[in-house]
UniProtKB/TrEMBL annotation:
Transmembrane segments: none annotated. The chain holds residues 149 to 374 of 374 of the full protein. Residues 11-226 are annotated as: Phosphopantothenate--cysteine ligase. This is Coenzyme A biosynthesis bifunctional protein CoaBC. It comes from Acetobacter tropicalis. The lineage of its organism: Bacteria, Pseudomonadati, Pseudomonadota, Alphaproteobacteria, Acetobacterales. Pathway: Cofactor biosynthesis; coenzyme A biosynthesis; CoA from (R)-pantothenate: step 2/5; Cofactor biosynthesis; coenzyme A biosynthesis; CoA from (R)-pantothenate: step 3/5. Residues 6-217 form the DNA/pantothenate metabolism flavoprotein C-terminal domain. GO terms for cellular component: phosphopantothenoylcysteine decarboxylase complex. In the C-terminal section; belongs to the PPC synthetase family.
């Protein structure tokens, strides 16, 4: 671990997908690997921050020096985040499922014959954890960073998302198939801040994480009460 420039700073990072149960053996999910969020938690811990990683199901191990809270569904992730003591910074990388089945069947849904299909799945909206964290409150983290995965019009959509969610920064990436980002090793991102838009070169998720951790450190340095 390097210099502890973020010592004493509490930072929550959400990561991974969420799993939304359909029945005891089936769920709705997405292709998020959690790799970018885990790398960010690692990079922030390396700068000395007190990092809590709230993670949906992934195949990854928690980085050293990071407190891991595992959860499965969006509602569990929301509860885990809201239960934390006040945080200085929140970085929401989790690919939270937008919708969940209205209800979870108690028993495995059975097909009666070869062509049998179940009734259409009814879905309801999940809580928007980033928007909740960003809402004005005495305990709002002073810096809230959201992520945006877009397949087109990345900059325009991300700029709009920053305002809509109420967060301070948006890290936007292009997850169109051509960019091969989701589940991959590299990432190409834009950082949207109140000051404007930075286009970062294509780099590994670890490099994105280090650079974002340094941007967060610089942000602390630019605020008077660091
Ligand atoms: O709305 P959209 O999913 O594009 O927004 C992405 C950002 O919002 C990410 O930072 C993600 O972690 C966060 N998010 C969330 N809860 C949701 C949906 C998205 O925290 N239910």
């Amino acid at each position: 671990h390097g210099e502890a420039v973020l010592a004493g700073k509490k930072i929550v990072v959400t990561a991974g997908p969420t799993h939304e149960p359909i029945d005891p053996v089936r769920y709705l999910a997405n292709r998020s690997s959690g790799r970018q969020g885990y790398a960010i938690a690692d990079a922030l811990a390396d700068l000395g921050a007190d990092v809590t990683l709230v993670s949906g199901p992934t195949a990854l191990r928690a980085p050293a020096g990071v407190t891991l809270i595992s959860c499965e569904t969006a509602r569990e992730m929301e509860a885990a985040v809201m239960r934390l003591p006040p945080q200085d910074v929140a970085v929401c990388t989790a690919a939270v499922a937008d919708w969940r089945p209205v209800s979870e069947a108690d028993q495995k849904m059975k097909k009666k014959d070869r062509d049998d299909v179940p009734a259409p799945l009814s879905l309801v909206a999940n809580p928007d954890i980033l928007a909740e964290i960003s809402a004005p409150s005495v305990h709002r983290p002073r810096l809230v960073v959201g992520f945006a995965a877009e397949t087109e019009n990345v900059e325009a959509y991300a700029v709009a998302k920053r305002t809509r969610k109420g967060c301070d920064w948006i890290v936007a990436n292009d997850v169109s198939l051509a960019a091969n980002v989701m589940g991959g090793v590299e990432n190409q991102i834009l950082l949207i801040t109140p000051q404007g838009v930075e286009y970062w070169p294509r780099m590994t998720k670890e490099e994105v994480a280090r650079r974002l951790a340094i941007s967060i450190m610089d942000w602390f340095c630019s605020t008077s009460d660091f």
